[in-house]
Specification:
Elements: E1 9-10, E2 13-14, H1 15-46, H2 59-76, H3 78-81, H4 86-107, H5 113-143, H6 146-156, H7 161-175, H8 181-196, H9 200-219, H10 226-233, H11 246-261, H12 282-303, H13 307-341, H14 348-355, H15 365-370, H16 374-392, H17 395-407, H18 409-419, H19 425-435, H20 441-453, H21 463-471, H22 478-482, H23 485-502
Antiparallel strand pairs: 1-2
Length: 509
């Protein structure tokens, strides 16, 4: 059935979608085929990777690349095939590692397959727990009417769609350095969905702006992105040096936002009869969420603990808060029933308790856990295992070596940002750090920025984008983001040029 406002459908896909699909397939093929060629050129003298296998020129490596490319193409077509994005990448991940294990078994080569798989799984587990807690808090805040109350407040102030576009974008840019780009995107997308009132154009453009703003803001802070944490933890850059990227990151956000501004609807959200009252415990949930973020940041910054530990401790904050709310709601339910049976007048607080629906059964933290976007969480599992498999086969190390040895640091660091829009930026940055290329602080700042903001080129290029595809399903999609990738690319190039200008002194030595 054809959707309203879409191009005519021919053979299951619209003509526009087919053209975009062919363009994307060509681009992805253009990325993967040179990768195989580079591997073939350099494998003879590389002596293999430090661990794992060197099958970059053998048929298992080519099959793994084909599986990975095929899975991502199905992710691209999710809104047309209705095949959830987690399914193809989980299938590809399992087949890639089964292929590796079978090759090792039948050839008898020595390779730590189980250790490598376990290491990849540990990386996913940390991300999974972090995401799960963040999503649970977002669901709890939604249940307590936090975002509806904010929507009502914004609508009451008469902000237009274009003003809301800039307000949410700048909030994403400002908040993400303090917490992280993923959590920022999840929270603000919930606000946009509440404020947008179902306006598809506004929601899609606002989500793109949030992704770009959150990724740009996360690039100039050690806490803003996983890749910045990796660079900081390995002492490639000092804490204060990251803030040299503030102006380039701001340019990266403002340029595409200024271009998209004219496509944002000129009207304003419709007034709602809902007063947007924050339900009982809503502000306490906000305080618990802030305490959770603070716990994760302090634990990681001062005690060297992984961020997920602080987030899981914050889950306990929410559980205890929900327990308190449930118990007190039960007492109020009992008191309300007693007053109903008597002739006494019901106290105002119990009347409000009844009107707002704050009965005991509504305070269930496990219900908020169940409402998490599990398709997104499983998608991350598939992606990290797919990329871990390709790294085990030697592709990422070979690619990083070829880039820095043949292209030079500036072009290599620029290309890494583009590749991070297709392949997860975490293993790419890990490969760069493991190589320890002889680079100036300016080049380390450049690769830190490009690996972070390059993911904004595609919706699947960053954790923020992937999470929003689940959070704003049906509004923010791969195709809606791809239509504005050219504007994001202009901001990407502009930020690199500005960095090379304002931080020129860091490129020496």
């Amino acid at each position: 059935m054809q959707r309203a406002g879409t191009a005519p459908v021919v053979g299951g896909l619209s003509m526009t979608a087919k053209r975009v699909f062919l363009t994307w397939a060509t681009a992805l093929g253009g990325c993967l085929l040179p990768l195989a060629a580079w591997a073939a050129e350099s494998s003879a003298g590389s002596g293999g990777s430090n661990h794992g296998l060197n099958l970059t020129t053998a048929w298992p490596g080519f099959v793994a690349l084909a599986l990975f490319a095929g899975a991502y193409l199905l992710v691209v077509l999710e809104e047309y095939t209705d095949l959830r994005k987690s399914k193809p990448v989980i299938l590809a991940a399992g087949l890639i590692w089964m292929l590796i294990a079978a090759y090792v078994h039948f050839t008898g080569v020595s390779a730590g397959v189980e250790d490598a798989l376990t290491e990849t799984l540990v990386d996913f587990a940390g991300l999974f727990l972090f995401l799960l807690v963040a999503m649970t808090y977002v669901n709890a805040m939604t249940d307590r009417n936090i975002f509806e109350a904010l929507r009502t407040w914004l609508a009451a102030r008469g902000y237009s769609f274009r003003q809301l576009f800039w307000i949410t974008g700048f909030l994403a840019f400002i908040i993400s350095p303090a917490i992280d780009n993923l959590t920022t995107a999840l929270v603000l997308s919930a606000v946009v969905l509440a404020v947008g009132g179902g306006n598809r154009r506004f929601i899609a453009l606002a989500c793109i702006n949030i992704v770009v703003g959150a990724n740009a803001g996360g690039a100039f802070s050690p806490f803003g992105d996983i890749t910045t944490l990796m660079v900081w933890q390995t002492d490639q850059l000092g804490f204060a040096e990251f803030f040299r990227l503030f102006i380039p990151a701001l340019v990266n956000f403002v340029v595409p936002a200024a271009i998209m501004h004219f496509a944002v609807p000129a009207g304003a959200p419709e007034a709602s009869e809902n007063t947007g009252h924050v339900r009982r415990g809503g502000y306490a949930v906000l305080i618990a969420f802030a305490a959770t973020i603070a716990t994760a940041v302090v634990g990681h910054s001062y005690f060297g603990l992984p961020p997920y530990l602080g987030m899981m401790l914050g889950m306990a904050y929410l559980q205890l808060l929900m327990y308190y709310l449930m118990k007190t709601a039960m007492w109020k339910d009992e008191a309300l029933a007693a007053y109903r049976e008597s002739d006494e007048m019901t106290p105002p607080d119990l009347v409000r308790h009844e009107e707002h629906g704050d009965s005991a059964e509504r305070f269930n933290v496990f219900g908020h856990v169940a409402e998490a976007e599990w398709d997104t969480l499983l998608f991350f599992y598939g992606v990290l295992l797919c990329v871990g498999g390709l790294a085990f086969l030697g592709y990422l190390s070979v690619l990083a070596n070829v880039l820095y040895l043949q292209w030079g640091a500036t072009w290599a660091n620029t290309a890494i940002g583009v590749m991070s829009a297709i392949v997860d930026n975490i293993p790419i940055m890990a490969a760069v750090i493991q190589m320890k290329p002889a680079m100036s602080d300016g080049q380390w700042l450049l690769v830190t920025m490009t690996a972070g903001v390059g993911g904004s080129l595609l919706s699947i290029g960053s954790a923020a984008g992937v999470a929003l595809m689940g959070q704003a399903r049906g509004y923010y999609t791969f195709m809606s983001h791809l239509k504005w990738s050219w504007a994001v690319a202009i901001g990407y190039i502009a930020s690199i040029l500005v960095h090379m200008l304002v931080n020129a002194g860091t490129f020496h030595g």
